[in-house]
Amino acid sequence: MFKAEQLAQTLHQLIEQGVWKPHQKLPSLREQAQTSGYSLMTVLNAYQELEARGLVFAREKSGYYVADQNMQPTALDRIEDSTLQSNIQMNSFVFDYLKSIQPTNILPFGSAFPNTALLHQPKLLQIVAQHARRKQSYESSASMPPGLLTLQQIIARRYSLQGIATEPQDIVITSGCLDALNLSLQAVAKPGDYILLQQTIFYGTWQAAERLGLNVITLPEHPEYGFDLEKFEQCLQMYPIKVCWLMLNSHNPIGFSVNDDIKQKIAQLLAHYQVYLIEDDVYQELYFGSKKPLSVKYFDQDHRVLHCSSFSKTLGAGFRVGWVHHRKLSNQIQHLQLMSTIAVSPLLQHALVDFLSTHHYEKHLRSLRLQLERHKKLFYRYLKQHLPEECDVYYYPSGYFIWIKLPKHIDSTQLYQTLLTHHIGIAPSQLFTVNRQQQHFIRLNCSFELNDQTQHSLATIIQTITHPS
Amino acid sequence: MFKAEQLAQTLHQLIEQGVWKPHQKLPSLREQAQTSGYSLMTVLNAYQELEARGLVFAREKSGYYVADQNMQPTALDRIEDSTLQSNIQMNSFVFDYLKSIQPTNILPFGSAFPNTALLHQPKLLQIVAQHARRKQSYESSASMPPGLLTLQQIIARRYSLQGIATEPQDIVITSGCLDALNLSLQAVAKPGDYILLQQTIFYGTWQAAERLGLNVITLPEHPEYGFDLEKFEQCLQMYPIKVCWLMLNSHNPIGFSVNDDIKQKIAQLLAHYQVYLIEDDVYQELYFGSKKPLSVKYFDQDHRVLHCSSFSKTLGAGFRVGWVHHRKLSNQIQHLQLMSTIAVSPLLQHALVDFLSTHHYEKHLRSLRLQLERHKKLFYRYLKQHLPEECDVYYYPSGYFIWIKLPKHIDSTQLYQTLLTHHIGIAPSQLFTVNRQQQHFIRLNCSFELNDQTQHSLATIIQTITHPS
Predict the structure, then answer these.
(1) Which helix (H) or strand (E) holds A216?
(2) pLDDT tens-digit series, residues B166-197
(3) In terms of DSSP H, where are the helices of A274-344?
(4) Which helix (H) or strand (E) holds A215?
(5) Which SUPFAM superfamilies does UniProt cross-reference here (chains A, B) (predicted)?
(6) In a mutagenesis test of the B interface, which of A93, A124, A139 is the best target, namely the one with the most B β-carbons within 10 Å?
(7) Which of A58, A199, A390, B360 is deepest in the core (most CB within 10 A)?
(8) Least confident among A125-134, A246-255, A304-313, A411-420
(9) Cα radius of gyration (chain B)
(10) B360: confidence class by pLDDT, cuts 50, 70, 90
(11) B132 close to A (CB below 8 A)
């Protein structure tokens, strides 16, 4: 076994140094044995070790191939221009969709939440139980905006550690990220105002625009960088935009993260054009690798950014505790909160404080990221191997969504409905865009174990795409 | 002691039969001893027993008086007419107020929540702890509108038991009653619509009207019945009212409950004028005596009533789980919910189901009612004895608020600010009405033990009223 590890290490370096390129076929077992002088069994063990490390993948009856590591992502579609959308009507479709994938017998590839098996922390639940047992009065401070002071402090410290100077009073605790986003939007926009959104974006964003009766300017994705700075500035020049709402890390549904240079330039443009940004950073903790991505908030000298996030994507929907970070608008947001959602359960806030005060959360995040990366890679490889060539499979190293472009003749909403009859949920692009040219994409939740059941379901999805009835 | 009990029983009957009337002075100890032939000590013991039963009260250096039992409530002020209010601005004052009474060193006579010592059910908390310990997945159904089916079923059953035929799907679970009320209002009214409100009402109602930009018609209280049917119909005739928002049981802040005949007539008028009613019935369980009051919903043949309530006033703000009951609008309310608060913590919903499925809740309610009645009566007697005569103290047999009319020259907002410096919170009428003629009322939360500390604070309030600085 020692020899196998040695060989694996050598090959690992070849791949890392780029000598062997992604999708390149590895020498056959026999060739490799001959070249290296190792036994066939040793070579097989080495290849399997590389596969376990996620560096290579096996294709049936064909051999081993180098996996995409720093995958140069497939370029996104270039949609020519930004457009004005005045009468958004997304909510009813979203509502029916969410109801349809709700039954427990529907495989949750369409869900927006990560696999709960990865989230249910025994330690956290133990703390909740302890708090519930204590007969303390949790009524006073935590049940009013801005929420529990000790929780504000802990969140502020996490920002400060990333280099964003933050005071506890800059943080308003909310009922999840969507509440933070909605309150932020209400704080800066009123019916009829102009808002800039990414052309493809999480349905909650569309619903918020619909609810407030906003005029929406859509910004197409940049094929390479995800975010098109040039078009962004054009929009700021052309339209009386009051506020933007952007997702730049682990974008939902596509998955890309925008690089830090672009974020810095966005911050500069916001300051220059005096436009607010609602930054939806709910997936900020779900990066793969060692470096947490920055946010536009990091570059926000001019207090234009309302930075929103939550614990619900790392601890589960049962911990729908979010927050918004903005010094000057904190009071206004609390005023709005007092007229609507008021506060998160004090019990959950107190339990969270205990959990976050220790290293439990960091430990949980590390393990969550590793597991998500493993699942996502296995899903990606399976899809890449079995989907017809005309499909594009977009893999980015963060989060748990994979975005797939189907052949243009396939209507993804119809596909979703067909798959429902097989008890499989997928998220069609109609949930994420109002652009009629983009109805052939789907988002898959890849946070699940690739076992017989899930693999069989993926096979059904692929089969239905390949041979639409 | 047996003799004393016998005498107490005899006198108890005299009071019950109305031979001795409320506020009538009892014979002095000496007179009673002479008449009855009992010893002075026996008479004293009997009087003390009656006092403990809440039937008589002692006035210093004066003797014993019969307490108001079926108190004929003091007539409310007659404010002449309904008025149109187009630009409600209540939220900022409410916000500052709630912040000001939040510190734990402020005595919570101004709070809207009952004394948490009466609410923290060991049994309920034990169930929460059990649920938290189980590593179940609570993510799926309970985290989407309309909430957990088993909770809908239990609430529906409670309605049916009161004679209101209800299906589980008529119930939408919300984040507390205020969320239910706000969602209901959004479901039936849009900015600029006309809404009818009681002239004196819970600030959340004003905030909701402010938030939606509604035109508010205020309906003055009926001096005797609390609700003025005649003026109500006049308003429905005069204004294009889309929806009413009323509180008819254990009205906050005044405390009255409207009788069932009036509720029935309200239902008829709603049907006739095709107007919706948002019925805030959050205190429905806090009646004293044996009969639960009905609601307008009970008489609602025409589906005009959105009936809203919650567990937060019986189980605490930590259990901010409410609901709205309306068959036809259920789907629309869920759509709105999906764009805002989404759902209550599944953990709390599951724990509630377990708690409500047993007799724990009924037992808790019975004990809560008895304790609230005891506290409220003791507060009332103390206030009645010590407040200057020109103050009216409104006592009604439900809930835990006492509404006090001060002499007209006293500004209750100033009084509240002065008392804050003594670390005492009270709720001034500015929180409940936009009528400038009514700034000399206060609401006291009387759900606390009348001990040395609370009595001393009441004395400070009375002192400040009697000798304003």
Answers:
(1) strand A215-219
(2) 999 999 999 889 999 999 999 999 999 999 99
(3) 312-315, 330-338
(4) strand A215-219
(5) PLP-dependent transferases, Winged helix' DNA-binding domain
(6) A139
(7) A199
(8) A125-134
(9) 23
(10) confident
(11) yes
In terms of Cα–Cα distance, which of B374, B61, B39 is closest to B7? B39
Q: CA-CA distance, A365 to A352, in Å (whole number)?
A: 14
- Is B93 in CB contact (< 8 Å) with chain A? no
Architecture of domain A83-89+122-359: 3-Layer(aba) Sandwich (3.40)
Backbone angles phi, psi at A201, to 5 degrees: -160, 150
Chain A positions touching B98 (Cβ under 8 A) are 144, 338
What are the extents of the domains in chain B?
A: 2-66, 83-90+120-361, 365-466
Please state, in angstroms and rounded to a whole number, the distance separating the CA atoms of residues A270 and A292.
Answer: 23
How do residues A315-365 score in pLDDT, each as one tens digit? 887 778 999 999 999 999 999 988 876 777 788 898 899 999 988 899 999
Higher local confidence (pLDDT), B122 or A3: A3
Cα gap B66→B62, rounded to integer Å: 13
Whether residue A143 and residue B334 make contact (CB cut-off 8 A), yes or no, is no
A177 pLDDT tier (thresholds 50, 70, 90):
very high
Q: What's the CATH fold of domain B2-66?
A: Arc Repressor Mutant, subunit A (1.10.10)
Q: Which residues contact A370 (CB under 8 A, 6 or more apart)?
A: none
* Closest residue by Cα to residue A280 from A206, A344, A223, A224: A206
Contact at 8 Å (CB) between B115 and B447?
yes
Asked if B129 lies within 8 A of A130 by C-beta distance, the reply is yes
Instruction: Please write the tens of the pLDDT for every residue from B137-173.
Output: 555 566 788 999 999 999 999 999 999 999 999 999 9
Inform me whether the C-beta atom of residue A317 falls under 8 Å from chain B C-beta atoms. yes
Query: Rounded to a whole number, what is the distance in angstroms from the first to the last CA of chain A?
Result: 50
List B324's β-bridge partners, or say none.
B172, B308
Inter-chain contact A208–B339, Cβ cutoff 8 Å? yes
- How many angstroms separate the CA atoms of A247 and A198, rounded? 8
**Contacts (Cβ under 8 Å, ≥6 apart) of B148:** B141, B142, B173, B346, B349, B350, B353
Under 8 Å between Cβ of B312 and B322: yes
Neighbours of A364 (CB within 10 A): 19
Q: How far apart, in whole angstroms, are the C-alpha atoms of residue B355 and residue A206?
A: 38
Helices (H), A162-259: 176-188, 203-212, 229-238
Report the C-alpha gap between A374 and A218 in whole angstroms. Answer: 34
Kindly report the CATH number that applies to the domain delimited by B365-466.
3.90.1150.10
Q: Can you say whether residue B263 is alpha, beta or left, with left for phi > 0 and alpha for psi between -120 and 50 degrees? A: alpha
- How would you class A163 by CB atoms within 10 Å of its CB: exposed for 0-12, middle for 13-18, buried for 19 or more? exposed
- Rounded alpha-carbon distances, angstroms, from residue A189 to A196, A287, A303, B342: 12, 31, 16, 21
Q: Tell me how close the Cα of A81 comes to any Cα of chain B, in angstroms.
A: 28
CA distance A425 to A107: 6
Q: Could you tell me how far CA B75 lies from the centroid of its own chain? A: 18
Domain A362-466 falls under CATH 3.90.1150.10: yes
Name the residue among A455, A385, A442, A436 with its Cα closest to residue A415: A442
Biggest CA-to-CA distance, chain B: 75
Cβ–Cβ below 8 Å for A340 and B335: no
Question: Do the chains contact at A179 and B104, CB–CB below 8 Å?
Answer: no
CATH number (3.40.50.300, 3.40.630.30, 3.40.640.10, 3.40.1160.10) of B83-90+120-361 reads: 3.40.640.10
User: ipTM of this predicted complex?
Assistant: 0.77
CB A293 within 8 A of CB A283: no
Helix (H, G, I), strand (E, B) or coil at A137: coil
